[in-house]
Design goal:
It is built from six helices and 28 strands. The protein is mainly β. Strand 11 and strand 12 form a beta hairpin.
Length: 454
């Protein structure tokens, strides 16, 4: 086999290993005097027979010897810098046989993701008569079973997003109503209703049956609710925050005291360890579940006082567990970001209008905010730059209530203009994202045994 044959897979290595002649590849400059006549030079230097050439020194024997010596020591070149071969052909960093079969790769590598289309108008609009135009209430929620619950006056309606059907869950008595808050349990079957008379009702949506009523925790209307597994947390106009264990008869297990006015925002973190609460006193409190006490009111972990209006909009970041976004009311209009481990404010951005709701995109680093006067719009922001991606218009009154579909693609909003609108603000995730999320999802079901609710 010819040792000079080049292997195209490793051209760079072979360029250093295969040297034809060591003298031709050294990196030092060595002068070559092959064109110099040393005999003539010696004769001229000694001065002997000046101007004459000693013919005896140019005998055939000496001439033959000089030629053999020049060939042996490679002294027969007339130029020092001589190129015998053309430069080698440039070699591709990636062999062509590896890239030819994936021609689409070069086309898609220019852009990591195609630019998505964000519809500027709502995908669907439904009538919502008797919608209460009250900033401090929470009257809209989308459950994990893909059913939307909305409270209109004293009646709670269920809209099934799968087939678009509507049903009535309950109409509460006039002395109890109106309904001031709704919140689905993690199982998507059971739902909690906060009422104007301070009571909280638990319902089974599949059988339209009331399971129990929670009393004694609050002295006035219950405007905010959130679940943490089997714990239902309620916030009232009295400033109290109550943890209710729905599995036991004595349901009040912890009480958080810190707000001086109505609690209008409640959100548990994904880990279930921290609770964020916002109130009409312009305060945000961060509560740690590990320090909760059943014998005495629990002290807050952080008190955040930087907003200048009521704080209803609260949203935990899905890709960073200790990042909380909050929005201030009409006298503030700011979206602020907090590190809830340290209590430090990370950033603040003035939107110029009342912030009524906040929702994170589950698939992109984006945040959607709903607003009141003057434009009553939805705004999509890029995080953390807070560059405005899009504005969605359609409501003619304050967009007070906003919730997200279970798959994260669709946003539902309700306003004082008595309309319920659906928006495709976040687009559709890829099949790979859906598969990875479904494998990682393991939500506990607090109502696995409904007979435990008494």
């Amino acid at each position: 086999m010819n040792s000079r044959r080049i292997n195209s897979r490793c051209p760079i290595q072979e360029r250093f290993l295969q040297r034809k002649n060591e003298r031709e590849n050294l990196d030092r400059f060595i002068p070559n005097r092959s064109a110099t006549d040393f005999d003539y030079a010696r004769s001229m230097l000694t001065g002997a027979n000046k101007g004459k050439v000693n013919l005896a020194d140019n005998s055939p024997a000496k001439e033959a010897y000089r030629k053999v010596l020049a060939e042996a020591f490679n002294m027969n070149r007339t130029r020092i810098f001589a190129f015998k071969n053309k430069p080698p052909t440039p070699i591709e960093a990636i062999p062509s046989h590896l890239t030819s079969s994936s021609s689409n790769l070069s086309n898609t590598s220019k852009y990591s993701k195609p630019r998505r289309h964000i519809p500027q108008t709502s995908e669907r609009t439904l009538d919502a008569p008797d919608m209460i135009d009250d900033f401090y209430l929470n009257l809209l929620d989308w459950g994990s079973a893909n059913v939307l619950a909305i409270a209109l006056g004293s009646t709670v309606y269920l809209w099934d997003a799968t087939d678009g059907s509507t049903s009535e869950l309950v109409t509460v008595d006039d002395e109890c109503g109106p309904v001031t808050s709704v919140k689905w349990a993690p199982d998507g079957r059971h739902i909690a209703l906060g009422l104007n008379d301070s009571q909280v009702q638990l319902w089974d949506s599949t059988s339209n049956r009331q399971l129990r009523t929670l009393r004694g925790g609050h002295s006035s209307r219950v405007g905010s609710l959130d679940w943490n597994n089997h714990i239902l947390t309620t916030g009232g106009m009295d400033g109290k925050i109550i943890n209710n264990d729905v599995r036991v008869r004595q349901h009040i297990v912890e009480e958080y005291i810190g707000h001086r006015q109505e609690v209008c925002g409640l959100k548990w973190s994904a880990s279930g360890q921290q609770l964020a609460s916002g109130g009409n006193d312009n305060l945000i409190h961060i509560w740690d579940r590990s320090t909760a006490s059943s014998s005495s009111p629990t002290q807050w972990l952080h008190r955040l006082e930087d907003h200048n209006a009521a704080v209803k909009a609260l949203a935990w970041c899905p890709f960073q567990g200790n990042l909380l976004a909050s929005g201030g009311g009409g006298g503030d209009g700011c979206i602020k970001f907090w590190n809830t481990h340290t209590g430090a404010q990370l950033n603040s951005y003035n939107t110029g209008s009342q912030v009524c709701g906040l929702v994170w995109n589950k698939n992109e680093r984006e945040l959607l905010s709903s607003h009141g006067l003057s434009q009553n719009q939805l705004t999509l922001w890029k995080y953390p730059s807070m560059v405005k991606v899009a504005e969605l218009n359609g409501h003619t009154s304050r967009v007070l209530f906003m919730t997200q579909s279970p798959d994260g693609n669709t946003i539902a909003t309700a306003a004082g203009d008595e309309t319920l609108r659906f928006w495709k603000a976040f687009g559709t995730p890829s099949a790979a994202e859906v598969a990875s999320k479904s494998l990682a999802k393991a939500n506990p079901e607090p109502f696995a045994n409904s007979n435990r609710i008494r």
